[in-house]
Design brief:
- With about 230 residues, this protein is an alpha/beta fold.
- It is built from eight helices and eight strands.
- An eight-stranded parallel sheet has the order 7-6-5-4-3-2-1-8.
- α1 packs parallel to α7, α5 runs parallel beside α6 and α6 packs across α7.
- Bound molecules: pyridoxal-5'-phosphate.
- The site of pyridoxal-5'-phosphate has 14 residues, from β8 and α8.
Length: about 230
């Protein structure tokens, strides 16, 4: 028997709360973002009705189509996927948070488009914590200088960090990556951002409990909520 999206969300919330309590943290301080890629408007609406904190999309075209269907009404929408500079225009001002700001060129373009719309776009800086060629995001060594430079953009507001660690074969394999990004978060927040950061986004279906143990304040969960994706 398959479970409903509402039941899945409740089960994920319970596991999140347990992980937070085990770490001595307040469960209310970890937000659940539903990664709704490849799931239709009905699934998004079901997640919103079940109280998801936000929905996150990966692909601009899919998001644009679902926006036209009003799939996200009632919840904040985040962009969490790889963002090409030539698609920034279709995202700025349409989402409350771009989690995947992973290069200065991209930040510059977000700033430019946000200025045109006379708004300030909230973003997270994406960290390529594993230093993988195939992934976007700032390599750890480039993050602090980028965060410093990002303060000079007047139409971009950096609210924290996001990371997608390397795919792991071993259980708990990502814990040390999560701890590393959590340390970068604390340092940059204190040294460059007057402790104004709000979101440390890390952890997915297979590892969100470890991410919470390491300090995540936002997890992005897809298959554990919506079921396995059919590619
Ligand atoms: C798909 C996706 C997720 C969720 O992945 P699951 O393993 O299905 O939970 C989280 N973050 C990003 C950026 C994604 O693309």
């Amino acid at each position: 028997m398959t479970t409903s999206i509402a039941e899945n969300i409740q089960a994920v919330r319970e596991r999140m709360a347990q992980a937070a309590r085990r770490a001595g943290r307040d469960p209310d301080q970890v937000l659940l973002v539903g990664a709704s890629k490849m799931n239709g408007a009905e699934a998004c609406r079901a997640a919103i009705a079940a109280g998801i904190d936000a929905l996150g999309e990966n692909r601009v075209q899919e998001m644009t189509g679902k926006l036209a269907e009003r799939a996200y009404d009632g919840a904040p929408l985040h962009f969490i996927g790889h963002l090409q500079r030539n698609k920034v225009r279709q995202v700025v001002g349409r989402v409350s948070l771009i989690q995947s700001a992973g290069s200065l060129a991209l930040l510059e373009e977000i700033d430019r488009q946000a200025e045109k719309l006379a708004l300030v776009q909230d973003v997270l800086l994406e960290v390529n914590v594993g230093g993988e060629e195939s992934k976007s995001g700032f390599p750890p060594g480039e993050l602090a200088p980028a965060a410093e430079k990002a303060r000079t953009f007047s139409h971009v507001r950096v609210l924290g960090l996001m990371t997608i660690p390397p795919i792991q074969q071993e259980i708990h394999g990502n814990f040390s990556y999560f701890e590393k990004v959590a340390r970068m978060y604390v340092d940059i927040n204190r040294n460059l951002y007057d402790n104004s950061f709000k979101f440390l986004s890390m952890g997915m279906s297979d590892d969100f409990e470890d991410a919470i143990a390491a300090g995540a304040t936002m997890v992005r969960v897809g298959s554990a909520i919506f079921g396995h994706r059919q590619y």
